[in-house]
Amino acid sequence: MSIIAEVEGRRLALSNLEKVLYPSGFTKGEVLHYYAAVAPALLPHLHDRPLSLLRYPDGAGGEHFFAKNVPPGAPAWVKTAEVPRSEDKWARQILVQDLPTLVWVANLVTELHTPQWKAAEPALADRLVLDLDPGRPATVVECCVVADWLRERLAGDGLRAYAKTSGSKGLHLLVPLHPPAPSREVTSYAKALAVEATRAMPGLVTHRMSRSLRPGKVFVDFSQNAAAKTTAAPYTLRARDTPTVSAPVEWAEIRACADPEQLAFRAGDLPGRLEGHGDLLAGLLDPERGHPLPDLRAP
């Protein structure tokens, strides 16, 4: 069953609103309501960034697949951009520039993933990302220890780090860069940081991707700085048993974390957090908060 809704003058057909998408009972209608509620904070982080969609049309426990190309049936008013897929191939992807587009995308049932660059400058990253992924029995608590070490290390190079939960098990650290830098140079710098963290905390950190090295350690994944990679966007829902969110957090919350549940945020938590804290990642959007990428340091 579908309904026709008008969003900022755009007519949208929204379907199957009562369909349960999460084992906890969260419905598609609640997914749409969530994205509309957080849109004022979310939209600036999506603006001008080509969107990749992790779609789960049959619910979080069903089939998942990534979609980068514009889905069939996209309204004519949805803005798109042609972006490089490889050296000689280009693709057209969605730009979520307004609330109607966000609601239309949410109706497809998606996680939202974006690159570290904007469509106008696909070779230049305006932010650096480090994905901290704990290997059991390590949890987000151990990620917090590593995150605080990285925050101080980045500050030593004149860079300011912001943090958000991954919406799964770990944390993402985000650093604004101004002016933007070539993605390959950002990746090299991020790798050097990951290697340095491994040397400083060998019993707690690994920078190597081999899963056999991860149990009990925090994997510092630097690879998402590559131009072809994407990261879960701030405020996106994740396809888990419950509607978890990739939620911005304060450094005081990270330093105080002693239990994984302290940094486990769900859709219902975010409107209150936004009312109380505002957008904790607003600094990422202000070029004045960004700093140049430092000279590369050898691992």
From TrEMBL:
Listed GO MF terms: ligase activity
Entry keyword annotation includes Ligase: yes
Superkingdom per UniProt: Bacteria
Keywords carried by this UniProt record: Ligase
Protein name in UniProt: ATP-dependent DNA ligase
CDD domains named among the record's database cross-references: MtLigD_Pol_like
Sequence ranges assigned to domain DNA ligase D polymerase in this UniProt record: 27-280
Pfam families on file: LigD_Prim-Pol (PF21686)
PANTHER family: BIFUNCTIONAL NON-HOMOLOGOUS END JOINING PROTEIN LIGD (PTHR42705:SF2)
InterPro entries: LigD_pol_dom, MtLigD_Pol-like, NHEJ_LigD
Ligase keyword on record: yes
